[in-house]
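Sample entry was shown:
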Amino acid sequence: MASEMEKVYNILERNKLQGFYNQFVQLGIESVQDFINGVTDEDLDNMRFTPVQKNKYKYMKDEIQRLGAGPLQNTLTKSLQAYGLYYSFPKCPERREILDMDPQNTIAIVEGLYYLFRELLPSLTKRSGDRIIEDIDVFEYAPVCWAYLLSQAKNESAERENYASISMKAQSTNQRFSEPVYVPGVPEVFERMYVLDIIREGGKIPNCSKLNLTETSIKKATNVEKILLSLPPFMDYYLCWIGYDGTTPKSSFNINSEKTFSQMKAEVENYSHLVIMPPLQLKAVGIEGPRLVLLSHEKLGMYMEKDKKTPQNIVVFDPLAGKSVAVNVDVLANT
């Protein structure tokens, strides 16, 4: 049976609100039922919920009142145990491994991918033919987005991209951030406890526009916090993309897809590892991983190779379990 906090995370994830998990925990949410009377509209405003997110929250709350927490025990749950992943970036092309990541919360990764995919896919404000992809369905079309990005990357060179090293340590303490915050009028990011100590001692922070700085004047540095949650503790800095060959503004980058949704979808077939393979086809000789395969109606896995000890089994990476497992192809085909 899932723990209470796992149930809280799972229902937030089902409603695309998992990015607010930490804030709800800080608010005092300890069970799914706490959402009914434990959160006010003012709390949602303080968390900077958008109108769309408020509608999702209302739907989630109505669902809890209608069904209670019971059905959550039978839904797909995500492990809250630590896990790892492999990554690389342009200035470091070799594959690196990150271990012991905190699975609560890869907020920067998930939200970053969501905004990227949302921008690529047709919406009410950005049509591509007659097709519209609703916000809640964005990740259902992840292979289409990855295919487009991979096709565009063929024409790019990492050597022409510029990165800046951004420290994850507070200048005031030279310690890695734990609770990064901003104070009015100062662009520097501070550690929350450092600011609270200054307030208690009646001190001043240079250039702060608030003459009488109080605890309520402190604003959480959510942009830095999200990066912290996506990096392992041993990393004290990260490389921030700032421009492409000196021609791109430092603030951000723009996506301007000139292809229609149908053209983007057609490109998926060019990348075998983005196409979901029928299990029985994995029996064929010469099929090499990685390949996507459905482990159940709601869960994708990554076919890696055939099990050398048992011919009818294949080795599949289960992303929710965070490990590779042996699966019988015939059983999988009948699932």
Remarks:
- The chain has four domains: 4-74, 83-163+244-268, 169-230, 276-333.
